[in-house]
Amino acid sequence: MKAMLVGFVAIAVIAVGADYTLDQMGWSAAEQGASSSSVRLGN
Amino acid sequence: MRDIRHFILGCIVAALAFIGLVSSLTPGMVNAQEAGSVAPQTEIDRSATGGAPTLEDIMRRQQGLPVDNSERAANVGDPSGAANLSDQLGTLGGASDPDLWRGMRFNEADVTTQVRGPAAEVLIQDRGMWWLQFREGPLLTYGGYLLLGTIGLLALFFLIRGRVKIDGEKTGRRIERFKNFERFGHWLLAGSFIVLGITGLVSLMGRKFMIPVMGHESYALIAGASKWVHNNVSWAFMLALVMIFVMWVVHNFPDKTDLKWLAMGGGLFGGGHPPAKKFNAGQKLIFWSTIVLGASISVSGISLLFPFELPLFAKTFAILNSTGLPEMFGFGILQETMTPHEEMQYAQLWHAIVSFVLMSIILAHIYIGSLGMEGAYDAMGSGMVEEQWAKEHHSLWVEEVKEREGKAPSGATPAE
Ligand code: HEM
């Protein structure tokens, strides 16, 4: 039982840690796809 | 243990579902090429529309049939052929507005942008409909049926066979099967997999099944949370997958005992208990499915988590094409150039399909590891199993353990 609970807690810790780390790195998947501004055509 | 039967059943259902998925993927692929590369079937007279789509084209599109767009795709203006500005009827350039729009539509326009990112230059991605329809249609439907079918088969098996009991007299003695650390690894894997499975299904099926029940507002909240959890819990799964692999791979190489075990159907249909080492053939299949499919899910998942950074499929398709296999099996030549978005579409489908297969296998595993077999759960619960259980399901392993214990000081019964 203990190993199981520790495992589940570790999942939560890793998830929060991952979110924090990617955030610190300035990563955002949502910003990858859209070209929100400054598009120029032709030239 | 005896999960081979479940595994085989799972495999059959998975294979059937997979064939279904692939066959419905094929027309999708044709559709994907709708945007330009479908070879002209017959020479179409476009004089009436000056090269624009004909009524026939429009009808074909409405019926979801492939349309030959090559003429339009090529018709994006020709700056070099344009009359010079100082000439009679000279133009400001070689491309009219319609030319430009066609260029965008067929991804031929010369786009410059300050936005950094691999997909920023794609202004119109017109190859998404087949993906969307496939995702909302066959993927969701067959995937759902695969899981329900697996649960149904397991229920049926439970009704027919009942719980696999410990045959012999229980000894009351316990032997250590998995150490704390191993059980931690297992539950890290299991917990994260189940969370990922549920949140993944929410993403795929929520629109269809949850919005009608709870409305858009509440679902939006759940979907957002679900996505956060899915993206971030993935790391725990990947870490656990590595742990499991490192800890247990030595016990999972196939050997002679597996043949006998498989030949006896794991002893599931009577005929006594076939001998097995630490893991029997059924478990080895579970192990390797978890490792191989889990790794594949992880790789496609990372590709999705970092959009456009790790495209996998155009390259994979090119390698497959070079083997000649896709053509041999009637898939034609697979697409070797893709827009960044198409790469993501394929990654999404692959991620989901492989996940469905692994979920179905794991359902069988969960069943046999808990409800389906007396004494099995203890191995992952306390780590200590009933000696009689071990003798019946892992006789060769028990001998090994006894031999080791014989060498150790007597009375060294391992304690929790
Ligand atoms: C509530 C869910 C689960 C239960 C009750 C459970 C139970 C068990 C048990 C009792 C064992 C040890 C079998 C033995 O003593 O020989 C085991 C092993 C294992 N489990 Fe699980 N498990 C669960 C979920 C999962 C999940 C979600 C995964 C993978 C994604 C997984 C992967 C494995 C693997 C690879 C093994 C080693 C091979 C095998 O024994 O089949 N388990 N599990």
TrEMBL record, chain B:
Q: Which Pfam families match?
A: Ni_hydr_CYTB
Enumerate the spans annotated as Cytochrome b561 bacterial/Ni-hydrogenase domain: 177-373
Q: What are its cofactors?
A: heme
Membrane topology, as annotated? Multi-pass membrane protein
Origin superkingdom: Bacteria
TM ranges: 139-160, 184-205, 233-250, 285-306, 346-368
Q: Where in or outside the cell?
A: Cell membrane
* Protein keywords: Cell membrane, Electron transport, Heme, Iron, Membrane, Metal-binding, Transmembrane, Transmembrane helix, Transport
Annotated SUPFAM superfamilies: Transmembrane di-heme cytochromes (SSF81342)
Q: Name where it mostly resides.
A: membrane
Family according to the record: Belongs to the formate dehydrogenase gamma subunit family.
Protein name per its UniProtKB record: Cytochrome b561 bacterial/Ni-hydrogenase domain-containing protein
User: What is the protein's species of origin?
Assistant: Marivita lacus
- Lineage of the source organism? Bacteria, Pseudomonadati, Pseudomonadota, Alphaproteobacteria, Rhodobacterales
